């Protein structure tokens, strides 16, 4: 099975994610959440970041993820050597960021955090067996604050 066809089967929390090689760009709130989620699903995880929050960096080995700390102004050798099936970028990376362009040019599958979340949305189901409706917050700045505000208002 090719990497692309394998990714096509990953449309559920209950799919077989074991052995899928996932590179995560960024190690802030979203990057860590992505790494934690795919590691829990059984994927092999490499997180690449220029600046690592000490708390998140300390937790990566606990969840079974590796860390590459270094420049992301081009395609890092660590990413190429890891040969990911998919690269998941944190929302802080602009579509025009050099590493995003390099990932695309190299032919790696590229997802955002929302793509991953949509694929595993069936982890928690409503009483009727369907996934919950979504409220989406995305962008570069203010996501965490806006999300917390929305959660406070809705829950």
Write a compact overview of the structure shown.
The chain is an alpha/beta fold and 155 residues long. The chain has 7 helices and 5 strands, in the order αβαβαβαβαβαα. The chain starts with a helix and ends with a helix.
List the helices and strands and how they pair.
Blueprint: H1 3-8, E1 21-25, H2 29-40, E2 44-49, H3 54-63, E3 65-69, H4 77-82, E4 86-89, H5 98-105, E5 109-112, H6 113-119, H7 143-154
Parallel strand pairs: 1-2, 1-4, 2-3, 4-5
Describe this structure in words.
By secondary structure, this protein is an alpha/beta fold. It has a single domain, classed as Rossmann fold (3-Layer(aba) Sandwich), CATH 3.40.50. The protein is built from seven helices and five strands. The protein has helices at residues 3-8, 29-40, 54-63, 77-82, 98-105, 113-119, 143-154; strands spanning 21-25, 44-49, 65-69, 86-89, 109-112. The protein has a five-stranded parallel β-sheet with strand order 3-2-1-4-5, with helices on both faces. InterPro entries: Mur-like_cat_sf, MurD.
β-strand amount: 15-25%
Number of strands: 5
- Top-tier CATH class: Alpha Beta
Evaluate the radius of gyration. 16 Å
Q: How does the overall form come out from the CA principal axes?
A: globular
Name the poorly predicted regions.
none
CATH fold-level label:
Rossmann fold
Judged by helices, strands and strand pairing, the structural class is alpha/beta
| Number of domain units | 1
Individual helix count = 7
- The order of strands across the largest sheet is 3-2-1-4-5
CATH architecture level-2 label: 3-Layer(aba) Sandwich
- CATH H-level superfamily: NAD(P)-binding Rossmann-like Domain
Round the mean pLDDT to the nearest integer and report it: 94
Helical content band:
25-40%
Task: Give the SSE string.
Answer: HEHEHEHEHEHH
Terminal Cα span: 42 Å
Main beta-sheet annotation: 5 strands, parallel
